[in-house]
């Protein structure tokens, strides 16, 4: 890492930690997610005490605590997957445009550093900060769970939760890359944030509906036709990072998920209805993880090229 | 070689070129921002790049820093090709953009410390250099206030300190006096002049404020529509551009009839006359012959109320070269 990059990185991280925007959002996420987890955990505990003879290792209470909902509040997972993109957007939507508008970009560029240092520092600092935040949130929730259940999580549960948190950070990284790109395209922060919110709503809420309309899953016909329609449907859905993230996290936090595509009856015959081991789950979602990495790298690459070519004249009017 | 260095130390005439623009052009689409510019700036001088808004001054400056790539030609700063090796240039050149900005949540001191670190100063060196420079630009009292609370003039002074932190050989100031009150402008320019003299820093500043440039620049370049019209000291320029009549004399007398005017025109050295009002007239002259004019008026029996002589300065240059063009 170059000297300039590490200096800028330190500054950016300090900026994030001190910014109102970041603190408000992490408070929002931490509070809603924890509230949902605690209410769910209480219901789970009641169920547990009634069926005390069940072996704990198999039930994955800590994972249930993150994925189950008591009907009143959405689950911890639902909250995180809905709100995490907001965090990524909030941290990056004006990454470059604010520097440009405040006239600091040109001053920075007049120092002996490469242009890529600036944009890399913006992106990496946000990634580091949110990774730390999600890990902290995860461990806090595990701790709360131990307090409520009165028993420690199994090693596999911890492993699954940590990977889930890292995948969440990766998912936010996709949104951050998009945020950085928009901060380059739009000179005004307000325009950029509106465009990003539109993207967020579209991808998380409307995109699945649009895919349903474009490539509906056939209910009747030959099995081949049905399979083909499912393939189309899934293929299109998976263009959205939200779909990839949902598939990856569901598989990680629900060990009983055995496949993400259609399963034929023949494939199910003779299958033991037991949870998948961690490594198998990981193998199952490997394509999703690679997909998320690819998306964030491509988007970041685009911003990178755009920033290198952009006229750096200050446009403070 | 040794001779040239000695000459530079003696300061007259400066002879080591530190900035060289060789046939540099920059085109944005069909618009030519800078058109085959040739310019050499020597060590230790204060050079004013003078021109109306949109003349291509900022583009030229950005090319010197390697932040904009010239379409044609080469820009050398301290012998380094600025386009190919901008980092080396930026290590040695301080740049104050027009409308400079600072991180508003950081104090003035913290802003400078960041720049110091980016330029590779150790923490200790940085703290010392920042202290010294804050004192120098007169911001010690405000050093620990957030930069967001600074006035325009303070920001500009902080900006100057910011450019000086890397101990530059050259500083480039883009419209440094824009938006500061007249008192502030005078102080700021005096500071630049002192710096250039005491530290031997070469200063390149761009401006469209002619008077300010006139006050501190050793040489100026007139820059219009991407082309350099003339380069030289102010006196040089005046002589070059107004060699037929470098003096202007304003006469107020009563009565000031046509007969008197004809007599005045016959005086040696008078090139032309222009009536301003029934009792006053402006004469352009090759020499300052105010005494002759006074005498002629007395002889004619008129009363002389005012006789003012001035040499052509930048204002006249401005009018002649800028004002006419802006109309077209």
TrEMBL record, chain A:
GO terms for cellular component: plasma membrane. It holds the Pfam family ABC2_membrane_2. The chain crosses the membrane at residues 20-41, 76-97, 118-149, 161-186, 193-210, 285-307. One of its GO terms (molecular function) is ABC-type transporter activity. Keywords: Membrane, Transmembrane, Transmembrane helix. This is ABC-type transport, permease protein. It comes from Candidatus Carbonibacillus altaicus. The lineage of its organism: Bacteria, Bacillati, Bacillota, Bacilli, Bacillales.
TrEMBL record, chain B:
PANTHER family: ABC TRANSPORTER, ATP-BINDING PROTEIN (PTHR43335). The keyword Nucleotide-binding applies. Belongs to the ABC transporter superfamily. SMART domains: AAA. Residues 19-250 form the ABC transporter domain. This is ABC transporter, ATP-binding protein. It holds the Pfam family ABC_tran. Keywords: ATP-binding, Nucleotide-binding, Transport. It comes from Candidatus Carbonibacillus altaicus. The keyword Nucleotide-binding applies. One of its GO terms (molecular function) is ATP binding.
């Amino acid at each position: 890492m170059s000297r300039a990059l590490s200096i800028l990185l330190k500054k950016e991280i300090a900026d994030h930690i001190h910014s109102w925007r970041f603190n408000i959002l992490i408070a929002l996420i931490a509070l809603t997610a924890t509230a949902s987890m605690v209410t769910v955990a209480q219901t789970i505990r009641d169920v547990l005490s009634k069926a005390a003879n069940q072996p704990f290792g198999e039930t994955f209470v800590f994972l249930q605590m993150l994925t189950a909902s008591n009907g009143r509040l959405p689950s911890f997972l639902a909250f995180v997957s809905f709100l995490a993109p907001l965090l990524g957007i909030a941290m990056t939507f004006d990454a470059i445009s604010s520097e440009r508008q405040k006239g600091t970009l040109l001053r920075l560029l007049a120092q002996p550093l490469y242009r890529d240092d600036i944009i890399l520092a913006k992106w990496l600092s946000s990634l580091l900060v949110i990774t730390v935040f999600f890990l902290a949130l995860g461990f806090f929730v595990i701790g709360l769970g131990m307090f409520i259940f009165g028993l420690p999580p199994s090693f596999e549960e911890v492993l699954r939760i940590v990977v889930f948190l890292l995948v969440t950070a990766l998912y936010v990284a996709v949104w951050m890359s998009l945020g950085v790109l928009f901060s380059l395209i739009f000179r005004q922060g307000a325009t950029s944030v509106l465009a990003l919110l539109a993207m967020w709503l579209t991808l998380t809420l409307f995109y699945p509906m649009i895919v349903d309309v474009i490539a509906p899953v056939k209910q009747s016909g030959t099995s081949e036709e049905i399979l083909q329609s499912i393939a189309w449907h899934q293929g299109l859905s998976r263009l959205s990072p939200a779909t990839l993230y949902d598939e990856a996290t569901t598989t990680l936090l629900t060990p009983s998920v055995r496949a993400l595509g259609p399963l034929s009856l023949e494939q199910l015959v003779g299958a033991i209805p037991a949870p998948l081991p961690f490594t198998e789950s990981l193998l199952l979602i490997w394509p999703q993880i690679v997909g998320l990495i690819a998306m964030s790298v491509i988007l970041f690459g685009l911003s990178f090229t755009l920033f290198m070519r952009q006229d750096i004249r200050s446009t403070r009017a | 070689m040794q001779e040239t260095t000695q000459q530079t130390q003696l300061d007259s005439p400066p002879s080591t070129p530190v900035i060289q623009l060789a046939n540099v052009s920059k085109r944005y689409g069909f618009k030519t921002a800078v058109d085959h510019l040739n310019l050499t700036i020597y060590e230790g001088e204060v050079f004013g790049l003078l021109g109306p808004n949109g003349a291509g001054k900022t583009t030229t400056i950005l090319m010197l820093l390697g932040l904009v790539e010239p379409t044609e030609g080469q820009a050398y700063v301290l012998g380094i090709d600025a386009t190919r090796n901008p980092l080396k240039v930026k290590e040695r050149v301080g740049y104050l953009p027009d409308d400079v900005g600072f991180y508003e949540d950081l104090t003035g001191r913290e802003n400078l410390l960041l720049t110091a670190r980016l330029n590779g100063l150790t923490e200790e060196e940085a703290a010392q250099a920042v202290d010294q420079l804050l004192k120098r630009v007169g911001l010690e009292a405000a050093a620990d206030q957030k930069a967001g609370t600074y006035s325009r003039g303070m920001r500009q002074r902080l900006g100057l300190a910011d450019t000086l932190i890397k101990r530059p050989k050259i500083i480039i100031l883009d419209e440094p006096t824009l938006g500061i009150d007249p008192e502030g402008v005078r102080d700021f320019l005096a500071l630049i002049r002192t710096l250039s003299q005491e530290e031997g820093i070469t200063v390149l500043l761009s401006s469209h404020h002619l008077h300010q440039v006139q006050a501190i620049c050793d040489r100026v370049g007139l820059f219009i529509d991407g082309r350099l019209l003339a380069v030289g000291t102010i006196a040089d320029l005046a002589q070059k551009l107004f060699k037929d009549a470098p003096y202007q004399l304003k006469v107020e007398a009563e009565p000031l009839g046509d007969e008197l005017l004809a007599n005045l025109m016959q005086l040696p050295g008078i090139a032309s006359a222009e009536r301003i009002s029934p009792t006053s007239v402006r004469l352009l002259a090759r020499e300052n012959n105010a005494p002759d004019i006074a005498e002629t008026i007395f002889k004619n029996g008129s009363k002389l109320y005012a006789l003012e002589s001035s040499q052509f300065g930048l204002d006249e240059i401005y009018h002649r070269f800028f004002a006419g063009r802006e109309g077209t």
